[in-house]
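quick one before i forget lol
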Amino acid sequence: MSTNLVGLGIDIHKLKHGRRLVLGGVHIPFPFGLDGHSDADILCHAIIDALLGAVNKGDIGHIFGVDLPEYKDASSLTLLQYVGKILEKEYKIVNIDTVIIAEKPKLSQYIGEMKGNIAKILSIEPEQVSVKATTAEGLGDIGKGRAMQCQAIVNIIRK
């Protein structure tokens, strides 16, 4: 019998003028990008933390620490692929559910591509990946357009 495991990941980054905005490996035209050591892709980062949490292997900083220069400006899709390869020996992803919280820009036209990128990098079907977007209704740093957050939950089973 398979063991069902669930993991939760949350990531938040400040927005910085002049930096590229990348979510789910998709470059989104916008004057602000997420500030961080890698490309700061909160969608991939939240999924990484959820996957690692489900198998009790720490978090993204444990593997890809900001003190490691090789990850400076790294593609978070590459980091996600690395974590996926670690897990694929013993685990199978059942599904991933995410929500991006941001005031702007509108993300609906990019969601299909984000899902496709994540599914491809993890060798799963796009139907196993849910990406949603909402706003913070003007509340806090996210609502004032100074930050973005993503939350992810994953369901995996032991092979």
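fyi The helical segments are 42-54, 60-63, 76-88, 111-122, 140-143.
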